[in-house]
């Protein structure tokens, strides 16, 4: 069983389009995240949700809108895609506390052309 | 920025040698974690060390933490070609709601 799964794995789209990436975790964790990894492998946190509530929003453009219908799902919708949005997006989950190991999905490689 | 910084950025060694990667961070932490990322894959958790611990072992991995210097090191002993990957340190400042990653060390182990 895949602990954190995200779809699609690859996404190629034109500038200006709107796209969504879905994420689901079956670990029973309360916290879910979206990270963006750029071409230099730098991993930057975008959002953190705890029990469906937004906890962290790291000054991400409002073209990015996360939605958490329940604590097992955290989807990412991106409006008006730009070339600079091209990156690998990772979903992750963890259980808050003192030993906060994060479990990552396999990533979605987004290419904006 | 509260990010950790890994050193070196890249490391190339022969199979059987030890690999040491260092991480520095800026603010007080609850814990520090190390992750591995194989090419084209997600990150996999390797080991977590709490702020009140100084050293931890897991198989061929040894992690140290010096909170006075705000630094940590990851030692991989008797490296194998399969250890080739990027290694990231990550720090937690908020009890699990915001894990911040460093830029990573790319390790290449030659067979």
Q: H/E order of the elements of chain A?
A: EEEEEEEEEEE
Q: Beta-strand percentage of chain A?
A: over 45%
Bin the strand percentage of chain B.
over 45%
Distance between the termini of chain B: 38 Å
Descriptive notes:
The complex is a heterodimer of chains A (113) and B (111). By secondary structure, chain A is an all-beta fold. Chain A contains no helices and eleven strands. In chain A, strands 2, 4, 5, 6, 9, 10 and 11 form a seven-stranded mixed beta sheet that branches. A four-stranded antiparallel beta sheet of chain A has the order 1-3-8-7, with no helix packed on it. In chain B, strands 2, 4, 5, 9, 10 and 11 form a six-stranded mixed beta sheet that branches. In chain B, strands 1-3-8-7-6 form a five-stranded antiparallel beta sheet, with no helix packed on it. In chain B, a hairpin with a 4-residue loop joins strand 7 (61-66) and strand 8 (71-76). The chains are: A mainly beta (113), B mainly beta (111). The interface between A and B is medium-sized, with 30 and 27 residues.
């Amino acid at each position: 069983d895949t602990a954190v799964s995200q779809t699609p794995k690859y996404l190629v789209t034109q500038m200006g389009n709107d796209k969504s990436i879905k994420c689901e975790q079956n670990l029973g964790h309360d916290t879910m995240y979206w990270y963006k990894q750029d071409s230099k492998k730098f991993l930057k946190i975008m959002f953190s949700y705890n029990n469906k509530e937004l906890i962290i929003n790291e000054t991400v453009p409002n073209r990015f809108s996360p939605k958490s219908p329940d604590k097992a799902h955290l989807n990412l919708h991106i409006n008006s895609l730009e070339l600079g949005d091209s990156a690998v997006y990772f979903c992750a989950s963890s259980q808050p506390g003192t030993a906060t190991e994060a479990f990552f999905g396999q990533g979605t490689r987004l290419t904006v052309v | 920025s509260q990010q950790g910084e890994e050193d070196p950025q890249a490391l190339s060694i022969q199979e059987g040698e030890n690999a040491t990667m260092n991480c520095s961070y800026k603010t007080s932490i609850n814990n520090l974690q190390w992750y591995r990322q194989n090419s084209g894959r997600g990150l996999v958790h390797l080991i977590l060390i709490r702020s009140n611990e100084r050293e931890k072992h897991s198989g061929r991995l040894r992690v140290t933490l010096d909170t006075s210097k705000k630094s940590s090191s990851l030692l991989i002993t008797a490296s194998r070609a399969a250890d080739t990957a990027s290694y990231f340190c990550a720090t937690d400042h908020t009890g699990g709601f915001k894990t911040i990653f460093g830029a990573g060390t790319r390790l290449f182990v030659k067979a």
